[in-house]
Amino acid sequence: MKVIIIGGVAAGMTAAAKLRRLDKDVIIHVYEKGRDLSYSGCGMPYVLGDVVTDQDKLIAKTYEEFQKQDIKVFLMHEVIKVDPKEKIVHIKDLDKDLVIKDTYDKLLIATGAYAKRTHIPGSDKIDVHVLNQFSDMKLLKPKIDKALSIAIIGGGYIGIELAENLINLKKEVYILQKGDHILKAYDKDISKKALDALISSGVHVHLNQDLKSYTYQDNQILIKTNKDTFKVDLVIEAIGVIPNTNFLKDTGIDMLDHGAMITNRHMQTSIDDIYAAGDCVAYHHQIKDSSVYMPLGTHANKTGKVAANHMFGIDDSFSGIVGSNILKVCDLTFAKTGLGIDEAKKLNLNYDFVDITAKHQTSYYPGATDLFIRLVYEKDTTILKGAQLVGENGVSDRINIMALAVTKQMTAKEFSQLDFAYAPPFSPVWDPLLIAASQIK
Ligand code: FAD
């Protein structure tokens, strides 16, 4: 069997490695349009913030290591067309500027997503950066070192992670956000806690900013918005991503409107022998019961593995997501799983919620800090539908417990009777999650 994989990062290279483990004879060709391979995009803000000082540590496996496993990787090779009838891909060798063809038995599309741009007037004349690929990070690093003031356009999770890393480098950091709150995946009052944390760390956050233009002035970049003017040394746009699927438009693969491919649970697209995985794919949201676009590394790795297994007849499947995510905002951790209030409203769910704040560990044990918890639940049944947690400590383990509860549709009563481990350094005798659930009547 011969497998072609398009895209050589999380989904693509997880699949390649899995395929090789399954069969030593399968022919694997990976086409990657960039020069980098198999890296952790998630670690890039921490390289820029000097938290991770060796950028090569982000590389999971090198080109040479893949070669040793007889996985043929073609860097700087962009797939420009897929012909599903003939099972041929057309590839542009970007260094040599020539087009070649290759045939497949099975194809995996793992092309990820590209960074959206504002394209406001002046964008083509000034040096506007994004942080999407390893090459973006390498380009940005020396510019950040030189810049004293940096504007981040967009207050989503990448913009926020960048801001907290850049403020640690003692830069003057601005976040310019279009709407009236940042971190829109969270309930508005909870995202306000992120806003406060950023502001008290020294980040200048400006809301309701509609960008109008960029110009150069006195070796700096002038950003004009509907309300204000900002003068900075560097601009980084972080306003979201779009699936890299333009080159597939005439294949007939089913996609959502903005280009995320629709697959079944085995990661098969609507075309025979073509699989898709990672950020170019829409996932089934188990609580919303619909396809959503939530591009995250954790899903990319899992779906790449599922696609590889299924190509070999193993009945592996990806059951979908519940929208879990986590991020560090200065000293705080924000985490969410399932539905927030706004999402419950949009779904016309008969919902209610409880908020509590409790110490994350026994209050007499040194280091106890506040942990905020919101649980969203269905009123009639008390089935838990979502959780949002904010605190300095004890967030990451508890959000995963809530992801399990939400996935398994536990009622508040079932949940509040769970046997959690207890010792003073780890939690109070009544864990904050159990306290929150027990308040649901
Ligand atoms: P990508 O990593 O985008 O790789 C796709 C590859 O395909 C690219 O190298 C691209 O060059 C190549 N390609 C595209 N089109 C073609 C073509 N036509 N021909 C050949 N090659 C092509 N996720 C989390 O879960 N947690 C986090 O904390 C987190 N933090 C992040 C922080 C940042 C700054 C960024 C940018 C992302 C973060 N993510 C995080 C998201 C995570 O990095 C992505 O979900 C993951 O990298 C997706 O992997 P992928 O293989 O689907 O796509």
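^ flavin-adenine dinucleotide complex. Residues 6-12, 31-34, 41-42, 44-45, 78-79, 110-113, 131-133, 158, 244, 247, 278-279, 295-298, 300 surround flavin-adenine dinucleotide (CB under 6 Å). DSSP finds eleven helices and 25 strands in the chain.
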